[in-house]
Amino acid sequence: MAKNYDSELLQVFPIATPEQKECFELLKKAYVDARYDKNYKITKEQLLYLLERIEKLNNPQL
After folding, report:
1. How far apart are CA 42 and CA 27, in angstroms?
2. Any idea where the domains of the chain sit in the sequence?
3. DSSP tally for the chain: helices H, then strands E
4. Above 90 in pLDDT, residue 47?
5. Gyration radius from the chain CA atoms
């Protein structure tokens, strides 16, 4: 089950390029760091990219 989930997650959040890996790491850290780490930074482009990916989680037909 976890393996299937991982492959589905990688379809939504690919990590084939350094930029994709960086965005995925930002997403993983976002919940805690964005709230508590005053040095957490994300660019507008990174945020828009992540929002598109997150929308795919909510609506897989996109």
Report:
1. 10
2. 2-58
3. 3, 0
4. yes
5. 12
